[in-house]
Specification:
By secondary structure, the chain is of the alpha/beta class. The chain contains 14 helices and 10 strands. The protein folds into 2 domains: about 260 residues, TIM Barrel, CATH 3.20.20; about 60 residues, Non-ribosomal Peptide Synthetase Peptidyl Carrier Protein, Chain A.
Amino acid sequence: MVDPPVVLAPMAGVTTAAFRALCAEHGAGLYVSEMITARALVEGNPRTHRMLARGPGDAVRSVQLYGVDPEVVGAAVRRLVDEWGVDHVDLNFGCPAPKVTRRGGGAALPAHPVLFGRIVAAAVGAAGAVPVTVKMRTGISPSVVTAPRAGLIAENEGAAAVTLHARSAEQLYSGTADLEAIAALKQTLRHVPVLGNGDIWTSCDAVAMLAATGCDGVVVGRGALGRPWLFAELAAAFAGRPPPPPPQLGTVADTLARHAALLADNLGEAAAARDIRRHVGWYLTGYPVGPAARLGLASVESLAELDRELALLDRSLGLPRGSEALPRGHSAGPRRVVLPEGWLEDAGNPIPPSGADSLASGG
Protein backbone atom coordinates (compact mmCIF):
# COMPACT_ATOMS: atom_id res chain seq x y z
CA MET A 1 0.00 0.00 0.00
CA VAL A 2 0.97 3.61 -0.56
CA ASP A 3 1.89 5.64 2.52
CA PRO A 4 -0.18 7.70 3.13
CA PRO A 5 -2.94 5.63 1.51
CA VAL A 6 -3.99 8.37 -0.90
CA VAL A 7 -4.37 8.07 -4.68
CA LEU A 8 -5.06 10.74 -7.29
CA ALA A 9 -7.75 9.38 -9.60
CA PRO A 10 -7.15 9.54 -13.35
CA MET A 11 -9.08 12.41 -14.98
CA ALA A 12 -8.98 13.07 -18.70
CA GLY A 13 -7.27 16.33 -19.53
CA VAL A 14 -6.50 16.99 -15.85
CA THR A 15 -4.06 14.45 -14.41
CA THR A 16 -1.34 15.44 -16.84
CA ALA A 17 2.33 15.18 -15.95
CA ALA A 18 2.19 18.84 -14.87
CA PHE A 19 -0.72 18.38 -12.48
CA ARG A 20 0.71 15.17 -11.07
CA ALA A 21 3.99 16.96 -10.37
CA LEU A 22 2.16 19.82 -8.69
CA CYS A 23 0.21 17.46 -6.43
CA ALA A 24 3.39 15.56 -5.56
CA GLU A 25 5.02 18.82 -4.46
CA HIS A 26 2.31 19.17 -1.81
CA GLY A 27 2.30 15.67 -0.35
CA ALA A 28 3.04 12.00 -0.80
CA GLY A 29 0.61 9.72 -2.59
CA LEU A 30 0.14 7.69 -5.75
CA TYR A 31 -0.48 9.92 -8.76
CA VAL A 32 -2.10 8.07 -11.64
CA SER A 33 -1.87 9.17 -15.28
CA GLU A 34 -4.73 10.01 -17.55
CA MET A 35 -6.42 6.92 -18.91
CA ILE A 36 -4.90 5.42 -22.04
CA THR A 37 -6.47 2.78 -24.26
CA ALA A 38 -4.85 -0.60 -24.64
CA ARG A 39 -5.39 -0.79 -28.38
CA ALA A 40 -3.96 2.69 -28.97
CA LEU A 41 -0.84 1.70 -27.05
CA VAL A 42 -0.41 -1.57 -28.91
CA GLU A 43 -0.88 0.18 -32.26
CA GLY A 44 1.75 2.79 -31.39
CA ASN A 45 -0.51 5.83 -31.32
CA PRO A 46 1.71 8.95 -31.01
CA ARG A 47 -0.65 10.76 -28.64
CA THR A 48 -0.66 7.76 -26.33
CA HIS A 49 3.13 7.78 -26.30
CA ARG A 50 3.15 11.49 -25.39
CA MET A 51 0.75 10.81 -22.52
CA LEU A 52 3.08 8.09 -21.24
CA ALA A 53 6.12 10.37 -21.02
CA ARG A 54 7.55 10.43 -17.51
CA GLY A 55 6.67 13.58 -15.61
CA PRO A 56 8.85 15.38 -13.04
CA GLY A 57 6.59 14.21 -10.22
CA ASP A 58 6.47 10.56 -11.28
CA ALA A 59 8.69 8.92 -8.68
CA VAL A 60 6.33 5.97 -9.13
CA ARG A 61 5.00 5.56 -12.67
CA SER A 62 1.31 4.75 -12.44
CA VAL A 63 -0.84 4.33 -15.56
CA GLN A 64 -4.54 3.70 -15.94
CA LEU A 65 -5.45 1.41 -18.82
CA TYR A 66 -8.77 0.91 -20.59
CA GLY A 67 -9.40 -2.21 -22.61
CA VAL A 68 -12.06 -4.78 -23.44
CA ASP A 69 -10.06 -7.56 -25.10
CA PRO A 70 -7.93 -9.78 -22.85
CA GLU A 71 -5.34 -10.38 -25.56
CA VAL A 72 -4.94 -6.68 -26.34
CA VAL A 73 -4.87 -5.72 -22.65
CA GLY A 74 -2.18 -8.31 -21.97
CA ALA A 75 -0.06 -7.03 -24.87
CA ALA A 76 -0.50 -3.44 -23.67
CA VAL A 77 0.52 -4.29 -20.13
CA ARG A 78 3.63 -6.09 -21.35
CA ARG A 79 4.63 -2.98 -23.28
CA LEU A 80 3.95 -0.74 -20.29
CA VAL A 81 6.18 -2.88 -18.10
CA ASP A 82 8.93 -3.83 -20.53
CA GLU A 83 9.21 -0.70 -22.68
CA TRP A 84 7.91 2.10 -20.47
CA GLY A 85 9.04 0.86 -17.07
CA VAL A 86 5.76 1.51 -15.28
CA ASP A 87 5.48 0.60 -11.61
CA HIS A 88 1.70 0.22 -11.39
CA VAL A 89 -1.21 -0.45 -13.78
CA ASP A 90 -4.81 0.41 -12.91
CA LEU A 91 -7.61 -1.11 -15.00
CA ASN A 92 -10.58 1.12 -15.73
CA PHE A 93 -13.94 -0.59 -15.27
CA GLY A 94 -15.74 2.48 -14.00
CA CYS A 95 -16.17 4.87 -16.93
CA PRO A 96 -19.91 5.73 -17.25
CA ALA A 97 -19.67 7.70 -20.52
CA PRO A 98 -22.42 6.63 -22.95
CA LYS A 99 -19.94 6.28 -25.83
CA VAL A 100 -18.17 3.64 -23.71
CA THR A 101 -21.05 1.77 -22.05
CA ARG A 102 -23.13 1.50 -25.24
CA ARG A 103 -20.40 -0.80 -26.55
CA GLY A 104 -20.01 -2.77 -23.34
CA GLY A 105 -16.88 -1.06 -22.02
CA GLY A 106 -16.11 0.77 -18.79
CA ALA A 107 -18.75 0.44 -16.09
CA ALA A 108 -20.76 -1.94 -18.28
CA LEU A 109 -18.03 -4.58 -18.47
CA PRO A 110 -18.24 -6.02 -14.91
CA ALA A 111 -21.76 -7.17 -15.83
CA HIS A 112 -19.97 -9.77 -18.01
CA PRO A 113 -18.05 -11.59 -15.25
CA VAL A 114 -16.26 -14.15 -17.45
CA LEU A 115 -14.85 -11.52 -19.77
CA PHE A 116 -14.07 -9.24 -16.85
CA GLY A 117 -12.09 -11.99 -15.14
CA ARG A 118 -10.16 -12.84 -18.30
CA ILE A 119 -9.12 -9.19 -18.75
CA VAL A 120 -7.89 -8.95 -15.16
CA ALA A 121 -6.06 -12.28 -15.47
CA ALA A 122 -4.41 -11.21 -18.73
CA ALA A 123 -3.19 -7.96 -17.20
CA VAL A 124 -1.90 -9.61 -14.04
CA GLY A 125 -0.14 -12.33 -16.02
CA ALA A 126 1.55 -9.83 -18.31
CA ALA A 127 2.57 -7.51 -15.48
CA GLY A 128 4.76 -9.97 -13.62
CA ALA A 129 5.86 -8.35 -10.36
CA VAL A 130 4.21 -5.02 -11.21
CA PRO A 131 0.94 -4.60 -9.27
CA VAL A 132 -2.32 -4.40 -11.19
CA THR A 133 -5.34 -2.79 -9.56
CA VAL A 134 -8.98 -2.48 -10.59
CA LYS A 135 -11.26 0.56 -10.40
CA MET A 136 -15.00 0.11 -10.76
CA ARG A 137 -18.41 1.42 -9.76
CA THR A 138 -21.11 -0.19 -7.62
CA GLY A 139 -22.92 -1.37 -10.72
CA ILE A 140 -24.91 -0.24 -13.70
CA SER A 141 -27.89 0.92 -11.65
CA PRO A 142 -29.32 0.33 -8.16
CA SER A 143 -31.03 -2.79 -9.53
CA VAL A 144 -27.94 -4.10 -11.36
CA VAL A 145 -25.17 -4.28 -8.77
CA THR A 146 -21.87 -5.73 -9.97
CA ALA A 147 -19.24 -4.69 -7.44
CA PRO A 148 -19.33 -7.63 -4.97
CA ARG A 149 -18.94 -10.31 -7.63
CA ALA A 150 -16.47 -8.29 -9.70
CA GLY A 151 -14.41 -7.54 -6.61
CA LEU A 152 -14.14 -11.24 -5.78
CA ILE A 153 -13.17 -12.06 -9.35
CA ALA A 154 -10.48 -9.36 -9.33
CA GLU A 155 -9.14 -10.68 -6.03
CA ASN A 156 -9.10 -14.28 -7.28
CA GLU A 157 -7.34 -13.31 -10.53
CA GLY A 158 -4.50 -11.62 -8.68
CA ALA A 159 -5.41 -7.92 -8.55
CA ALA A 160 -3.36 -6.10 -5.92
CA ALA A 161 -6.21 -3.82 -4.81
CA VAL A 162 -9.73 -2.81 -5.76
CA THR A 163 -11.06 0.76 -5.84
CA LEU A 164 -14.79 1.36 -5.60
CA HIS A 165 -16.29 4.62 -6.80
CA ALA A 166 -19.37 4.28 -4.66
CA ARG A 167 -21.88 5.35 -7.28
CA SER A 168 -23.58 3.41 -10.03
CA ALA A 169 -23.00 4.24 -13.67
CA GLU A 170 -26.59 5.48 -13.77
CA GLN A 171 -25.83 8.05 -11.07
CA LEU A 172 -22.86 9.46 -12.99
CA TYR A 173 -21.70 12.12 -10.50
CA SER A 174 -25.03 12.95 -8.86
CA GLY A 175 -26.18 12.22 -5.33
CA THR A 176 -23.75 11.06 -2.69
CA ALA A 177 -21.26 8.23 -2.52
CA ASP A 178 -22.66 5.05 -0.96
CA LEU A 179 -20.36 4.42 1.98
CA GLU A 180 -22.26 1.24 2.85
CA ALA A 181 -21.26 -0.21 -0.52
CA ILE A 182 -17.58 0.42 0.26
CA ALA A 183 -17.98 -1.16 3.69
CA ALA A 184 -19.71 -4.20 2.17
CA LEU A 185 -16.96 -4.69 -0.38
CA LYS A 186 -14.34 -4.40 2.33
CA GLN A 187 -16.11 -7.18 4.23
CA THR A 188 -16.35 -9.30 1.09
CA LEU A 189 -12.70 -9.07 0.04
CA ARG A 190 -10.38 -10.64 2.60
CA HIS A 191 -7.03 -10.67 0.84
CA VAL A 192 -6.60 -7.37 -1.00
CA PRO A 193 -6.98 -3.73 0.05
CA VAL A 194 -10.17 -1.86 -0.80
CA LEU A 195 -9.93 1.84 -1.61
CA GLY A 196 -12.90 4.18 -1.40
CA ASN A 197 -13.67 6.83 -4.01
CA GLY A 198 -16.36 9.49 -4.04
CA ASP A 199 -17.01 12.84 -2.34
CA ILE A 200 -13.53 13.32 -0.88
CA TRP A 201 -13.57 17.12 -0.91
CA THR A 202 -11.57 17.65 2.30
CA SER A 203 -9.25 15.67 4.54
CA CYS A 204 -12.13 15.34 6.98
CA ASP A 205 -14.12 13.54 4.30
CA ALA A 206 -11.29 11.05 3.86
CA VAL A 207 -10.99 10.36 7.58
CA ALA A 208 -14.76 9.95 7.83
CA MET A 209 -14.81 7.50 4.92
CA LEU A 210 -12.15 5.32 6.52
CA ALA A 211 -13.96 5.38 9.85
CA ALA A 212 -17.35 4.55 8.31
CA THR A 213 -16.24 1.82 5.92
CA GLY A 214 -13.01 0.31 7.22
CA CYS A 215 -11.49 0.77 3.77
CA ASP A 216 -7.73 0.83 3.40
CA GLY A 217 -7.30 4.15 1.64
CA VAL A 218 -8.95 6.79 -0.49
CA VAL A 219 -8.91 7.78 -4.14
CA VAL A 220 -9.45 11.47 -4.80
CA GLY A 221 -10.91 12.72 -8.07
CA ARG A 222 -12.94 15.92 -8.29
CA GLY A 223 -11.78 16.99 -4.83
CA ALA A 224 -8.30 17.59 -6.24
CA LEU A 225 -9.52 19.95 -8.97
CA GLY A 226 -8.00 23.33 -8.21
CA ARG A 227 -6.84 21.99 -4.86
CA PRO A 228 -3.43 20.28 -5.20
CA TRP A 229 -2.73 21.28 -1.59
CA LEU A 230 -5.42 18.78 -0.57
CA PHE A 231 -2.64 16.18 -0.57
CA ALA A 232 -0.80 18.11 2.15
CA GLU A 233 -4.00 18.16 4.17
CA LEU A 234 -4.51 14.43 3.64
CA ALA A 235 -0.92 13.64 4.63
CA ALA A 236 -1.39 15.57 7.87
CA ALA A 237 -4.73 13.94 8.63
CA PHE A 238 -3.43 10.40 8.07
CA ALA A 239 -0.43 11.20 10.29
CA GLY A 240 -2.75 12.32 13.07
CA ARG A 241 -1.85 15.99 12.73
CA PRO A 242 -4.33 18.86 12.30
CA PRO A 243 -4.56 19.72 8.61
CA PRO A 244 -3.34 23.17 7.61
CA PRO A 245 -6.03 25.80 7.00
CA PRO A 246 -7.10 26.59 3.44
CA PRO A 247 -4.59 28.87 1.75
CA GLN A 248 -5.10 32.58 1.24
CA LEU A 249 -5.71 33.79 -2.29
CA GLY A 250 -2.05 34.79 -2.70
CA THR A 251 -0.96 31.19 -2.24
CA VAL A 252 -3.68 30.06 -4.65
CA ALA A 253 -2.36 32.54 -7.22
CA ASP A 254 1.21 31.31 -6.78
CA THR A 255 0.04 27.69 -7.17
CA LEU A 256 -1.91 28.51 -10.30
CA ALA A 257 1.17 30.19 -11.77
CA ARG A 258 3.30 27.18 -10.84
CA HIS A 259 0.76 24.89 -12.52
CA ALA A 260 0.95 26.97 -15.70
CA ALA A 261 4.76 26.90 -15.66
CA LEU A 262 4.78 23.11 -15.37
CA LEU A 263 2.33 22.89 -18.26
CA ALA A 264 4.60 25.13 -20.33
CA ASP A 265 7.54 22.81 -19.67
CA ASN A 266 5.53 19.96 -21.21
CA LEU A 267 3.39 21.69 -23.83
CA GLY A 268 4.97 25.01 -24.67
CA GLU A 269 3.71 28.39 -23.52
CA ALA A 270 0.82 28.89 -25.94
CA ALA A 271 -0.71 25.49 -25.21
CA ALA A 272 -0.10 25.94 -21.48
CA ALA A 273 -1.97 29.27 -21.49
CA ARG A 274 -4.92 27.60 -23.17
CA ASP A 275 -4.86 24.59 -20.88
CA ILE A 276 -4.65 26.54 -17.61
CA ARG A 277 -7.92 28.34 -18.40
CA ARG A 278 -9.95 25.24 -17.59
CA HIS A 279 -8.43 25.17 -14.10
CA VAL A 280 -9.09 28.81 -13.18
CA GLY A 281 -12.68 28.31 -12.05
CA TRP A 282 -11.68 25.32 -9.90
CA TYR A 283 -8.86 27.21 -8.20
CA LEU A 284 -11.10 30.19 -7.43
CA THR A 285 -14.16 28.21 -6.26
CA GLY A 286 -15.36 29.72 -2.98
CA TYR A 287 -12.96 32.64 -2.97
CA PRO A 288 -14.61 36.10 -3.11
CA VAL A 289 -13.23 37.01 -6.51
CA GLY A 290 -15.39 39.09 -8.83
CA PRO A 291 -16.54 38.12 -12.32
CA ALA A 292 -14.17 40.53 -14.09
CA ALA A 293 -11.11 38.92 -12.49
CA ARG A 294 -12.40 35.44 -13.23
CA LEU A 295 -13.07 36.31 -16.86
CA GLY A 296 -9.64 37.87 -17.25
CA LEU A 297 -7.88 34.82 -15.88
CA ALA A 298 -10.00 32.47 -17.97
CA SER A 299 -9.07 34.34 -21.15
CA VAL A 300 -5.28 34.58 -20.92
CA GLU A 301 -3.22 34.06 -24.04
CA SER A 302 0.25 33.90 -22.46
CA LEU A 303 1.95 33.26 -19.14
CA ALA A 304 2.89 36.95 -18.94
CA GLU A 305 -0.79 37.83 -19.22
CA LEU A 306 -1.59 35.25 -16.57
CA ASP A 307 0.95 36.86 -14.23
CA ARG A 308 -0.58 40.30 -14.84
CA GLU A 309 -4.08 39.06 -14.07
CA LEU A 310 -2.93 37.22 -10.95
CA ALA A 311 -1.19 40.38 -9.71
CA LEU A 312 -4.58 42.15 -9.64
CA LEU A 313 -5.98 39.74 -7.04
CA ASP A 314 -6.17 40.64 -3.35
CA ARG A 315 -3.63 38.18 -1.98
CA SER A 316 -4.92 38.55 1.59
CA LEU A 317 -8.37 37.11 0.87
CA GLY A 318 -9.18 33.85 2.62
CA LEU A 319 -11.63 31.07 1.84
CA PRO A 320 -14.90 31.75 3.67
CA ARG A 321 -15.85 29.18 6.29
CA GLY A 322 -18.05 26.48 4.82
CA SER A 323 -16.61 26.83 1.31
CA GLU A 324 -14.00 24.10 1.65
CA ALA A 325 -16.24 21.38 0.20
CA LEU A 326 -17.91 23.27 -2.62
CA PRO A 327 -18.15 20.82 -5.53
CA ARG A 328 -16.02 21.17 -8.63
CA GLY A 329 -15.98 19.29 -11.89
CA HIS A 330 -18.62 16.88 -13.16
CA SER A 331 -22.08 17.04 -11.60
CA ALA A 332 -24.27 15.39 -14.26
CA GLY A 333 -26.75 12.64 -13.53
CA PRO A 334 -28.67 10.53 -12.98
CA ARG A 335 -29.03 9.26 -16.54
CA ARG A 336 -30.11 5.94 -17.99
CA VAL A 337 -27.12 3.80 -18.93
CA VAL A 338 -26.97 2.91 -22.62
CA LEU A 339 -25.90 -0.71 -23.11
CA PRO A 340 -25.48 -2.99 -26.12
CA GLU A 341 -28.65 -4.81 -27.06
CA GLY A 342 -29.12 -7.86 -24.86
CA TRP A 343 -26.04 -7.03 -22.77
CA LEU A 344 -27.54 -8.04 -19.43
CA GLU A 345 -29.26 -11.12 -20.83
CA ASP A 346 -25.98 -12.36 -22.35
CA ALA A 347 -23.87 -11.84 -19.22
CA GLY A 348 -21.95 -15.10 -19.55
CA ASN A 349 -20.61 -14.31 -23.02
CA PRO A 350 -16.77 -14.18 -22.88
CA ILE A 351 -16.36 -12.56 -26.31
CA PRO A 352 -15.06 -8.96 -26.22
CA PRO A 353 -17.62 -6.37 -27.36
CA SER A 354 -16.99 -5.35 -30.95
CA GLY A 355 -15.33 -1.98 -31.42
CA ALA A 356 -15.43 -0.94 -27.78
CA ASP A 357 -11.72 -0.30 -27.53
CA SER A 358 -11.55 1.92 -30.60
CA LEU A 359 -13.47 4.72 -28.92
CA ALA A 360 -10.70 6.83 -27.54
CA SER A 361 -7.63 6.04 -29.57
CA GLY A 362 -4.70 7.83 -28.07
CA GLY A 363 -6.36 8.62 -24.74
